[in-house]
Amino acid sequence: MELRAELATERESPNLMRFGKKLVMNGIMLLFTASCIFPLLWLGYSSLKTQAEFSNSIISLPGKLHFENYVEAIKLTNMPQLSLNSIRVTAISVVLIVLIAFITGYFVARLQFKGKRLMVIYYLFGLLVPIHALLVPVYLLFKETGLADHWYTLVIPYVAFNLSMPILLVSSYVTGIPKEIEEAAAIDGLSFSRTMFMIIMPMAAPVLTTVAILQFFACWNEFSFALVLLKDASMRTVPLGMSYFKSQYSTNYPQLMAGMVLSMLPVTIMYFAFSSRIIAGVMAGAVKG
């Protein structure tokens, strides 16, 4: 009996240790999840406070929901105009990024030419250079050439500085597509360009969708280039509108947070609508590469 009890204890000991490890890991992940979610919840309920309530306690819940903060935020920032500017710049930038990334990524994946390795290194180098270090040179260049303060001003840096990662993702994905498909298309009489756009482009739709969504996030939320290159208030984008809530001596934080919630709304909707596609596209590109 004593031997059986000892054997049972030995069997239970590893199970208890395994359960303890799982409990600790789940606890850590739960704390991490809470730390990520709480700032968003805090932003949401703080946007429904009055300035006096926020000043008294930044953590407490609002006594009454003040939705007028959202109305004031829309009026103060002229949110419809800012949103229109952001939509226009973001849409044009994303379309150009996807198109250029696909063509360049396809060439890198399929064609052999002199300087190809140097070209890939150049794209990798683009991931290493901090964009904010180039703000002053870009500002001086745009000022001298008269490219600043136009509706298309932001499209140029957005496309130029966001191409490296999409090109590498596309080239990695296209490399995994069998070449026999293109050979069969050539036998059927399709030209190089028709094969690229009619056969390969639809097959690369998962990674192109991922690129489009990620670049939508990047262009919509971009602040630094918009701040430096746009002085005309009618050309400003949504992130720049957040500066309207700050006066010389005070800041209306509940209204500012209401504006932030409104600015985050399109990005949040896009993320929850396409989160599975983002993960699938990035994983597919990584596996195929």
Word description of this protein:
This protein is an all-alpha fold. It has two domains: 2-46; 68-288, MetI-like fold. It has helices at 2-46, 51-56, 68-77, 79-110, 116-128, 135-145, 155-161, 164-175, 180-187, 192-203, 205-221, 224-229, 238-241, 253-288. The model has no long low-confidence stretch (mean pLDDT 85).
Summarize the structure.
It is found in: Cell membrane. By secondary structure, the protein is an all-alpha fold. 76% of the residues lie in helices and 0% in strands.
Count every helix, treating DSSP H or I runs of 4 or more residues as helices: 14
Please tell me how large the radius of gyration is: 26 Å
The major beta sheet can be summarized as: none
CATH topology of the largest domain: MetI-like fold
Strand fraction = under 5%
How many domains, as an integer?
A: 2
- At CATH level 2, the architecture of the largest domain is Orthogonal Bundle
Rounded average pLDDT:
85
Task: Tell me roughly what share of residues is in helical segments.
Answer: over 70%
| CATH class assignment of the largest domain | Mainly Alpha
The CATH homologous superfamily of the largest domain is called MetI-like
Query: What structural category arises from helix and sheet content?
Result: mainly alpha
Order of helices and strands: HHHHHHHHHHHHHH
Q: What is the end-to-end distance? A: 60 Å
Subcellular location: Cell membrane
Keywords: Cell membrane, Membrane, Transmembrane, Transmembrane helix, Transport
Membrane topology: Multi-pass membrane protein
InterPro entries: MetI-like, MetI-like_sf
